[in-house]
Structure formats: structure tokens, C-alpha cells
């Protein structure tokens, strides 16, 4: 007589288990299935397409009633098992009936996590787990209105896309800083958010829900920070919790899930468990592939075989039509791991392989996921990819052939082939120009044909054309790359940020095909500056991409303390300011007070956590940040000028103050120091400053591009002007030109040497229109820059920068 | 100086550490730098660069590396190893995260 097999649950895992059992031995068991849901076995994974309207419920039924009947399986629909009597080898159902078993399989699955939020019982609040949830959502969608989805993981995003497809206005609230953070790296998460926004779905990250609002029906969601989002429907999709209560009550070992061994046996050898309710080697699974692997193993085990389950490596694909996302394995970067990144800006794709010891350990694909399964296969099989790692990222179809030769491909193009789409330049015209004008660089091709002068995405093709024409005589433009994360030099990056209207660091990295996912300590501060300079008032400063001094608005010292330098306009101060500085120094035990070379006072040795309070006191006495710590406008040094000095020709002090009040707050590629001397004796040392003014009887001599750092460099003469207003105008124009053209960490004198002093002089002095335009752009930027960062922080902004996360006073055992 | 070895110290929430950033935890035994990467992993190192003692918690975090603010040494967040060509190693501490709360294992 057949042995009695009882299965509790009828989800996807037991469905597959039944198939595997029947395939191997139709007669081995008399099978009874208890299903608490009133439905037949259906494909839960396909609920998303049902919601989106791509499928209907009948399409996703796996086994209907007839299937159970045909296989002689007793199926109790809508009947839950309430207890397991392990001693008697019986299960007890909700209607009091009992069923005896020789083998028992628990497959109670999981349920959606619903945190104890106020308002979670309101009508219109659903999870996304079964057909009932989908029915509720479809009914809500039919009425239109707004939906808020809490949770930007796989399920939440599929729900969001489905509801949007049904015509609802959808907002996704996600706790983490990037979507699907378990499956995607930050770069792919960013692209995904952009793609969803492109479909009209609002995506809010770092959104912690505090409450669901409404009396009877839900009307909105409130975040911890007070923001509110109106809603007619709220879908909570923040994760799942294994259903362990039945197993727990029966005395089986349970942690987060029901504990099983590699044979999927629970702590009672007559009872097995599989699916989302189990915990195996510390892992609980919520995806279908592991459940199927478990089903195969368990079928063999139940039939006396020796298969064992060793855990699953996961791959995930987002099921939102038109948005391709794939991830597998462990894609986190780390020591001993390398990343291979391929970004194709034109095709909006991002591919990243994480490689350790010449083996793929993680895959993240966005936009083009065709090679996902192939990468995943190499990952699972532990294939040594060392031999083809250079072309690996291009996918399966590029392997085994000789490496593709891009020059050959370009050479094969017809003369009519369009190379530069922006300016409509074809191959024939470029080749003609190279031959006739004897061009040898991309710059020259740009100048003569306009090809690659706009968005720049055809630069590679133009280079290939030069190479075809000149052979080895052509060397790819020697502009050194910004850093190891990109092949582009600073100029190209700056030009492309403007040409393509790139407005965030992730956007730059994607559009310019960065080779790393997160950048490095060299390129991130540079990009942050370039974006700030390109989009004043619009770009949101990324503090984590700033050097500590600019993040803390003070200078870090060798012992980790900071120095604080308040602004002293033009080097002038007052007894009240000096008194306030003395008071602050005493109150905070500041160990050193020094006069700087820039005519200010430096408070040295301030503890980081004291900075906001120190600033508050200095602010109270009318002092603001001196930006002594920044790649920014620092000091304007002055002499006393004609107000006191018997040789003075102009009021150099007042001019210095005017200049400083006009220029302060401006971020620049490197530090910028000014000086104004009242006569050619030059007591303020104006001729070794980034911008210097020497007053003479007839007016003002303007100098620029000097420095007294590792190199002592005397200034170049810019020109002579007659009025203070003109000094300000010429100075702002020069500074703005430097802000727009300078490479990050390039002093003004290095910039001038690179661009040419004469070129700069001609532009500033001889072209009043351009000068005026530079001044206008500078003043626009200043409108957004002249806010005292100290006052903002003294009032609590960025407070976590200054406070430790925790301070432990004495030994104490916790958690 | 060692703390009560083996103890787990609850130090705060992951959300309170800036992404691609760090926070400091001061204890009587050592100062700890807690780093949060772009993909929300958290690592703990002693907050002291082996080169000249720089506070690593003030560095720029990129990938699973931090660049020391004082002289640019690059330190691996997982192992604490200073990246070649510079020598040295920073003490790394185990981290546990439960429900978004971070605990650090004391050395």
C-alpha cells in the first residue's frame, strides 16, 4: 500500500514538488494537499503581468482541479491545517478533521510584511501577495486617482508599473537610498529610477513612512520628515515573512524560517519543509528559482534518493515591460574583486560584472539583459574567464572570435555614412578635410568640419577615421584622462556636461561611460565642482564627494582637529570682533591663535564637534566663514592705501573690501587669493596673487595668474582701468573664465599657462560683450553661492557631519 | 587598549550614516569609524590611519575604499589593509545589522 504523504500548502513550491514526484514514481504515495487559499495552484510570479493587464488569471493557473483529480491527489481547497500531532503522525484541519501521514511536507510560504504603522487597517491599504490583492488593486485602478507604493523592491516596482499602466498616478516611497538595493548597485538603481520617472512614476528614496492617513479609507501617507503624499490606494510591498507559526507550535526548530538541513528535513525527520517558509543555512528565499531547486531535491529525498540542496545563487529580473533589469550573484565590490563596467550612453545601458580570481561572482545589467543568463551560467559554473576577460563584458556573441577591430569597421563605412549626428557630418567630408587640410588631431577635425563638436559621442569614430587616414602617424589625443575611472580628460568632461545637460554625478558617469560604478576620490570632487559651476542654483551639492575641509567648512589639522578662520574683509577688523574671537578661544579651550599671511586670524585645534557652536558665537559677532578651507575665494589682502599712507594713490583697503564682498562664496577649481596694493611699492604683495590690483595715480593696474606656492610665480599684466567698478568687472570676468575653463585642482597660473595668457587677456580686455557675459554668469552663480555655510551649520544643517554617531562612556555589554 | 572583547556595541542606525560617508563612534578603548558604502553596506575600522594617525572617518568613501584626509592613503574597508604601494593595516571590527540598527563587535 502506498505511503501517505500530506502537504500543507499549495503554492508554487509544492506544485513543483508534486510534478517532480509524479514524474519519478506515480504510485509511491497517496497524496493529500491542504490549501488555505480557496484557489487552485497558480503562478504567483505572474501576478505582476495580471496587474499590468498583460495576462489574466486563467493564464497563470498551473494546475487546475482536473489535474489533481487525474493524478488521484486529494486537494482540500480553502481548508487550513491548524495543528500537527507529531506523536500520532496526523495533521488537524480547521474543520476538526484529521489526516494521517507517513511523510509530512510543510510549505506554508510567507506573508507580506506589514509594519505596525498607524492606519494600516484602513480600507484601501493592500499588500501584493495573492489574487485577492490584485483584485483590490484593479478595482482601485478602475476608479483612477493616486496610488502610493511603499517599497521600491522587485514586487513594489512591479506593482507601481502595473498601476501606472492602469492609469493611476503612482508614487513609490523607498526607505533605502536606491531602488532594489538588494539586487542592484547604486548606478543601476539610479538608471532604474530615471526610467520609472520617464514613465511618469514619482520615485522618492530615503523615505521613511510614519503613518497612513485617513479615517475609514486611506487618504495619504506621511513620512517621518513630515512630507505627505495623497493616496486613494496604498500598496505595502516591503518584504515577506516566512509563515512559521504552525511549525513552531508543533515544536519544530524555527528561527526566521523553519530550519531545514541539506535534505530539507526539519528537526523532526518525518517532516520536511520547502519554499518561502524555510530557512536553509541562514538564508530565506523569496524568489522562485530556489523553490524549484528545493522541490527537485525533496522529491528525490521522499522517494529514498540522496539528493541534497546546497543553497541557491540568485538571479533576478524585473518584470516591467520595457525596462530591462537583471542581476545575479554577489555584485558588491570589495578587496580582491575587480569590476568590469560597460556603459553605453547612446543605448542607455549599463553592465557590470564583479570578478574575483578570474571568475564572475556578480552581474548587474540595465537596459540590455540578453546576456544575463549566459553570465549567470558562467558564474554558477565557476568558469575561468581569464582568457577572455577583455571582451567578456560584450557578452556571449563576442567570445571565441578574434577581438573586433573598430578601425576595420570604420574603414568599411561608405563615404555617405553619417559620423556626427548633431552637425550632420558624413564620413566623406571628414576624410576629405583630413586629406586636404592635412589635419592630424580631433581638435582640428572639430574646427574644420564641426564633427564631434557638439555632444562628442562620435569622438571615437573621428579618432578611428584619423587613424585610418594617418596610420601610425595618428596618436589618439594626448589629453590625459581625469583618473582611472574614465578615458576622458577634464576639458571633454566639462564640455560634455554642458553639451548634454548632465546634471548629477550618476548622470555624468552613465552618459560619459565611466568605468567604475562609484568613481574615486579624484574624479568625484572634480565632477561635483564641474556640475556646481555648470548649473548654479540647480545642481544639488554632493557633500560626500567633497574633501573633508569643504564638508566640515574648516581645515583639518594633523591631529584631526580643525582650524577656523573667520572672514576679515580686506584685512580690517574691529575691537568687537577681536573680543569675540578672544572669548571663543577661551570658552572652547582653543589652544592656538595665529595671524595668517592673508591678514586674518586662525583659531587652531578646534574639536570637530565644537565647530557649529564656535561658528554660532562668531556669527553673533557679525563674522562669517573665511573659506580658508576651500577651493574658493580666500582672502583679499590690502594695504592701508591713501587713507593713511603718505604714498597711497587710491583707497586700496576700501577697494579690497568691495572686491571681497563681491567675490566671496565663489567655488573655484583651486584656491583663489587676491590683493590690492595702494601704490607700486606693493606692500600687499599683489603681484604674486591669483588676481592682484596695484593702484596708481591714473587708476588701477590689473594683474593675474601669480602665486607664491611651491612655485613663486609673478603675475601677468591684464590691463589698466580707471575706476573701481571696472576693477570689479574685469576681476569677476577673469574669475568666471577660470571657473569655466580650469581643471579641478589647477591654480589660476597653471590654467593661464595652458590656455595662454594672451588669449585670456584678449578675451577679457578686448571683447566687452564677452566680458559682460562672463560677469553676468558670475553674478548669477553668486546669487546661489553667497550664503554663509557657518550660519547654516550653526543652525543645525548637516549636524551629523559634526557629531559622533555614538559616544560610549564606560565598559558596557550590549546587544 | 582593548575593550571587553567579544561584546557587541549597539551604535545607531544605518540611516544615520551618510551613504558614501562615515560616522565616528567614540569609546574609552578606541575611536571607531563606521562607513556606509553606496550599496548600503556598513564597515567598521579603527578611526586611525596607520600612516600618521589621520581620522579615516573624515575621508572620501569610494567603492569599498576610503581615502585618508591627511595624506591620501587608501584603505580597504573590509580588511583594513592600506592599498599598495603604501604599507600598513588598520584594525577592522565586525559589524552586525539588525532591522537597520548597527552593532560593532569590540576587539
How would you describe this protein?
The complex is a heterodimer of chains A (815) and B (107). The two termini of chain A are 54 Å apart. A five-stranded parallel beta sheet of chain A has the order 5-2-1-9-21. In chain A, strands 11-18-12-13-14 form a five-stranded parallel beta sheet. Chain A has a five-stranded antiparallel beta sheet with strand order 23-24-27-26-25, with helices on both faces. By secondary structure, chain A is of the alpha/beta class. Helix content of chain A is 33%, strand content 21%. Chain B has 107 residues and is an all-beta fold. Chain B has a single domain (21-105), classed as Rieske [2Fe-2S] iron-sulphur domain (Rieske Iron-sulfur Protein). Chain B contains no helices and ten strands. The chains are: A alpha/beta (815), B mainly beta (107). The interface between A and B is large, with 47 and 49 residues. Strand 41 of chain A pairs parallel with strand 2 (21-26) of chain B, so a sheet runs across the interface.
Summarize the entry for a quick read.
Chain A has 815 residues and is of the alpha/beta class. Chain A contains 27 helices and 41 strands. Chain B has strands at residues 8-13, 21-26, 31-36, 42-46, 60-62, 65-67, 74-76, 92-93, 95-98, 101-105.
Amino acid at each position: 500500500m502506498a505511503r501517505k504523504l500530506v502537504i500543507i500548502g499549495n503554492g508554487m513550491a509544492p506544485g513543483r514538488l508534486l510534478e517532480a514526484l509524479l514524474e519519478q514514481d506515480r504510485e509511491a504515495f497517496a497524496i493529500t494537499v491542504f490549501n488555505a487559499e480557496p484557489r487552485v495552484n497558480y503562478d504567483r510570479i505572474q501576478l505582476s503581468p495580471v496587474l499590468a493587464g498583460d495576462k489574466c488569471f486563467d493564464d497563470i493557473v498551473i494546475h487546475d482541479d482536473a489535474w489533481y483529480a487525474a493524478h488521484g491527489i486529494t486537494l482540500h481547497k480553502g481548508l487550513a491545517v491548524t495543528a500537527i500531532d507529531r506523536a500520532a503522525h496526523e495533521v488537524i484541519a480547521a474543520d476538526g478533521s484529521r489526516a494521517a501521514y507517513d511523510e509530512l511536507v510543510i510549505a506554508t510560504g510567507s506573508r507580506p510584511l506589514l509594519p505596525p504603522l498607524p492606519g494600516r487597517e484602513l480600507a484601501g491599504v493592500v499588500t501584493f501577495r495573492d489574487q485577492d490583492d490584485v483584485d483590490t488593486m484593479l478595482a482601485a485602478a478602475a476608479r483612477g486617482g493616486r496610488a502610493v507604493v511603499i517599497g521600491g523592491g522587485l514586487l513594489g516596482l512591479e506593482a507601481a508599473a502595473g498601476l501606472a499602466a492602469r492609469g493611476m498616478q503612482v508614487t513609490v516611497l523607498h526607505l533605502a537610498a536606491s531602488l532594489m538595493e538588494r539586487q542592484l548597485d547604486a548606478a543601476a538603481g539610479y538608471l532604474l529610477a530615471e526610467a520609472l520617472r520617464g514613465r511618469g512614476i514619482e520615485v522618492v528614496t530615503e523615505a521613511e513612512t510614519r503613518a497612513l492617513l485617513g479615517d475609514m479609507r486611506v487618504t495619504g501617507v506621511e513620512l517621518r520628515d513630515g512630507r505627505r503624499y495623497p493616496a486613494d490606494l496604498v500598496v505595502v510591498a516591503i518584504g515577506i515573512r516566512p509563515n512559521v507559526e504552525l511549525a513552531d507550535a508543533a515544536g519544530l526548530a524555527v528561527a526566521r524560517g523553519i530550519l531545514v538541513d541539506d535534505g530539507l528535513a526539519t528537526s523532526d525527520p518525518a517532516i520536511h519543509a520547502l519554499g518561502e517558509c524555510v530557512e536553509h543555512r541562514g538564508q530565506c528565499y523569496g524568489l522562485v528559482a530556489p523553490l524549484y531547486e528545493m522541490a527537485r531535491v525533496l522529491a528525490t529525498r521522499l522517494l529514498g534518493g540522496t539528493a541534497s540542496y546546497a543553497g541557491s545563487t540568485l538571479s533576478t529580473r524585473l518584470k516591467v515591460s520595457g525596462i530591462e533589469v537583471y542581476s545575479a550573484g554577489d555584485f558588491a565590490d570589495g578587496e580582491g574583486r575587480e569590476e568590469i563596467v560597460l556603459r553605453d550612453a547612446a543605448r542607455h545601458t549599463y553592465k557590470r560584472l564583479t570578478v574575483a580570481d578570474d571568475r564572475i561572482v556578480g552581474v548587474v545589467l540595465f537596459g540590455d539583459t540578453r546576456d544575463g543568463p549566459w553570465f549567470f551560467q558562467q558564474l554558477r559554473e565557476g568558469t575561468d574567464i581569464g582568457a577572455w576577460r577583455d571582451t567578456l563584458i560584450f557578452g556571449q556573441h563576442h567570445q571565441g572570435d578574434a577581438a573586433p577591430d573598430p578601425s576595420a569597421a570604420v574603414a568599411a563605412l561608405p563615404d555617405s555614412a553619417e559620423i556626427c549626428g548633431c552637425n550632420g557630418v558624413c564620413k566623406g567630408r571628414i576624410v576629405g578635410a583630413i586629406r586636404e587640410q592635412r589635419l592630424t588631431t580631433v581638435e582640428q577635425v572639430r574646427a574644420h568640419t564641426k564633427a564631434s563638436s557638439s555632444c562628442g559621442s562620435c569622438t571615437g569614430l573621428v579618432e578611428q577615421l584619423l587613424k585610418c587616414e594617418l596610420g601610425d602617424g595618428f596618436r589618439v589625443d594626448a589629453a590625459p584622462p581625469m583618473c582611472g575611472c574614465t578615458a576622458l580628460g577634464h576639458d571633454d568632461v566639462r564640455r560634455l556636461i554642458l553639451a548634454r545637460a548632465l546634471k548629477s554625478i550618476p548622470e555624468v558617469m552613465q552618459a560619459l561611460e565611466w568605468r567604475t560604478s562609484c568613481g574615486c576620490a579624484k574624479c568625484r570632487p572634480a565632477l561635483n565642482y564641474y556640475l556646481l559651476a555648470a548649473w548654479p542654483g540647480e545642481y544639488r551639492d554632493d557633500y560626500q564627494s567633497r574633501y573633508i575641509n569643504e564638508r566640515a567648512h574648516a581645515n583639518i589639522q594633523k591631529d584631526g582637529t580643525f582650524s577656523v578662520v573667520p572672514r576679515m574683509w580686506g584685512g580690517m577688523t574691529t575691537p568687537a570682533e577681536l573680543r569675540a574671537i578672544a572669548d571663543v578661544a577661551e570658552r572652547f579651550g582653543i589652544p592656538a591663535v595665529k595671524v595668517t599671511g592673508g591678514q586674518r586670524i586662525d583659531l587652531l585645534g578646534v574639536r570637530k564637534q565644537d565647530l557649529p557652536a564656535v561658528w554660532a558665537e562668531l556669527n553673533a559677532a557679525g563674522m562669517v566663514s573665511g573659506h580658508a578651507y576651500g577651493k574658493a575665494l580666500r582672502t583679499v589682502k590690502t594695504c592701508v592705501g591713501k587713507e593713511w599712507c603718505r604714498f597711497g594713490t587710491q583707497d586700496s583697503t576700501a577697494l579690497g573690501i568691495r572686491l571681497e564682498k563681491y567675490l566671496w562664496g565663489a567655488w573655484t577649481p583651486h584656491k583663489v587669493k587676491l590683493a590690492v596694493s595702494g601704490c607700486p611699492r606693493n606692500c600687499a604683495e599683489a603681484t604674486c596673487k591669483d588676481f592682484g590690483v596695484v593702484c596708481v595715480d591714473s587708476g588701477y593696474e590689473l594683474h593675474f595668474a601669480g602665486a607664491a606656492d611651491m612655485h613663486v610665480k609673478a603675475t601677468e599684466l591684464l590691463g589698466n582701468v580707471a575706476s573701481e567698478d571696472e576693477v570689479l568687472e574685469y576681476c569677476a570676468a577673469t574669475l568666471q573664465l577660470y571657473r569655466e575653463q580650469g581643471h579641478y585642482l589647477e591654480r589660476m597660473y597653471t590654467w593661464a599657462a595652458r590656455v595662454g595668457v594672451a588669449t585670456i587677456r584678449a578675451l577679457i580686455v578686448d571683447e566687452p560683450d564677452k566680458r559682460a557675459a562672463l560677469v553676468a554668469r558670475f553674478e548669477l552663480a553668486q546669487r546661489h553661492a553667497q550664503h554663509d555655510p557657518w550660519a547654516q551649520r550653526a543652525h543645525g544643517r548637516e549636524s551629523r557631519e559634526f557629531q559622533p554617531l555614538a559616544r560610549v562612556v564606560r565598559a558596557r555589554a550590549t546587544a | 587598549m582593548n575593550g571587553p572583547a567579544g561584546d557587541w556595541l549597539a551604535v545607531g542606525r544605518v540611516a544615520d550614516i551618510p551613504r558614501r560617508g562615515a560616522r565616528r563612534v567614540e569609546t574609552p578603548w578606541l575611536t571607531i569609524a563606521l562607513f556606509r558604502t553606496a550599496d548600503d553596506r556598513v564597515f567598521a575600522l579603527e578611526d586611525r590611519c596607520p600612516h600618521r594617525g589621520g581620522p579615516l572617518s573624515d575621508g572620501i568613501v569610494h567603492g569599498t575604499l576610503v581615502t585618508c584626509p591627511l595624506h591620501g592613503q587608501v584603505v580597504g574597508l573590509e580588511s583594513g589593509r592600506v592599498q599598495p604601494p603604501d604599507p600598513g593595516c588598520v584594525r577592522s571590527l565586525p559589524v552586525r545589522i539588525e532591522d537597520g540598527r548597527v552593532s560593532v563587535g569590540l576587539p
